[in-house]
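User: Round two. Same drill as before: sequence, then structure, for each protein.

Assistant: Same drill it is. First protein:
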Amino acid sequence: MTTETVIRLLTISALAGLLGAVGLRLTLGQVVQSLRRCRFVAILVANFLIVPALTLAAARVSGLERDITIAMILLGSAPFAPVVPVFARLARADLSLAAGLTSIFPVLSAFLTPLACVVALKAVPDAGAIRFNLLGVLLTLVATITLPLALGVFVNHRWPALGRRMLRPVEVASEAVGALSLAFVTVVEFNSIIATGWRPLLVMALVAELSLVMGYGLGGAPASRQVIAFGTSNRNIALALLVAIQSFAGTPVVSGVVANGLLLILLGLLHVAWWRFASPRRNAEL
């Protein structure tokens, strides 16, 4: 079994379990109501237009090399990582909104991510062409993100007692596999991460933080603001990798996506810690 296969199995298993557990906490009515309250068009524009443009501008102004710029653009064009509902749960944000947006965005991303990539890469000299298997990517995203969420919601609706019994074991097992997956990827890709250099990672961190602030400004209630902030700053690494492998296999673009993607996960965990622990204490003092 290859290293890539191990990473894929661990990642899919962890995400499917974590997203299914999120669904077990929700009802369809809660998800629909949250989606109706959000500024959906503004969220779409922010994620598929502004964030890719911001990523491109930051990479060009910083003078980053072509392959790293491409990697950042692929990430910038792939919004709402599947970990957003998990981060929302840990940060005690609006879980139903996080589940709703994260279940819809894979379908939209299959069509809009390649378009955003093509437009942004026109500004990168000798970037090459994007190869994108629309049907394959759509099926992969729906099967690994939308379906586990929907299945969890269905079980909670149809058999609520069973859902309550399943919730904690599924969460514990999925969190353990997720930690193992993250550790494994970090060890395997450590040399690639180091080779990326500090400057591209710093630029990507700046883009992520600006995207977080922008996303926070699009929300309504604080719990909704946090969800949208997580979605705009935490990009879908799996989708960006799919595009990178299909279009730029054997180049530093792939390792650049991995390195910058791991950085985004780290930043997301720091934001979770802030909103869960530091922010409530600060509000209480005020």
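Second protein:
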Amino acid sequence: MQCLDHTLIARRVPGIRVNFSVLPDFVAISGLVAVFWTLLRRTRQSRLNFWLVGWGLLLIHILALFVADNSRGSADGAYSVAVSMLVLTANAFMWASSDQLEIRWRNLSMVVFSAVPDVILLTCVFYDVQAGWLYALLTVAGAASTLWMMRAWHGPTGRPTLRWRTSLVVTVYAVQGALLGLHHPQQTLNWMLAWHYLAVAALYRMTAPQPSASVRFTTISFIAWAFVFPVSQLMSVLWPHVHVAAEVWNLPKFLVATGMTFTLLEEQLSKAEYASLHDALTGLANRRLLVRQLHESMRRTKAAGTQLALVVIDLDGFKEINDTLGHAVGDEVLQWAARQFRAQLGPKDVLARLGGDEFAVVLSDVPDRAAAERIAQSLRGALAGGMVARGRQLAIRASVGFSMYPAEGEDADRLYAVADNAMYEGKPYRQEQEPLSGADAARLFSGE
């Protein structure tokens, strides 16, 4: 179809032949930008900000190629713009791995201005400027500006370290300076493009929350994109008569786009799963996750021949706080209580909010009942100091009860009923709450 359109245009306008070979790329990337823009408006995923900037710059790259391919005069200017956009795109993708992901003038200026020395150097290469001192100056300036950007870059996982980033920048610009000193401008251009996209691949992989399949796929696609530039030049030298279709060289960028899309999908699924298993107010596990963790702990405990404890906690007088001070203060109390409880527990213990003012804890590998009693009392004592809310000192108290597995029950329903009854027995005002019946416990713990 592309060849047919080309023939029709050539016949319609004699003497003018327009090369539309980049049109499919432009349409595909435009569609990708539209999809990412829609996703950004719906999901507000922050990394999409700079992904959109990067793919927008790639659209400019494609337009510059179109101008270069159809220019009657010198196409050096258009080609230099096209290559410069590739560098800027890589910088935008690098910044997308940072935890400073809002589109602000300061952040966006780092992406743009850090690439200015490299852009000037690329332009000088395309126009065959013969000035060794200028290339040396631009190489030093490029290293300095990239270090400036990398120092401001902060990875959400704390990796890679500043020392690692600094070493990377110094190394790549040392290689660039050596290539320029040996008078290899084409190799310098390919090296600049290759290392930029290799750096994107490294930062993308190292700062990913988890090494999922989509993250690995996108990382490999970025590496393939990086190797397009040196491999294409190597093939032109070793096999000058071999023709590789442009679609083959463009394939890595579309693989990157596919990987990014799947990464966003995975993140959305992970967030949905997290929301389904955690309390929105406190961030603690909810009933569903507690049931799952309790069943798993019971299986491990039975296999190991050890014991576990289920602790149930209820805040005394919480209804009065809500009624007199409002639900906003009640929410603050729940969040504060959750932090106090968490501070008393080990990393393997599961703390959950079951709803309202009720919490539960699964204590794994408890040596005996006395140890469970000590932890239960520490949870109650964690609230003894009270808290200040809206300028008022609030005295917060809690009733605590627990049960032991397997001594006091071999199923979750029975354990919860025993712990809840023990908690009720310790309440200062028993008339406020009736002990939980076995049927109620079954409704809470029999399924997910």
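The chain is about 65% helix and 10% strand.

User: Perfect.
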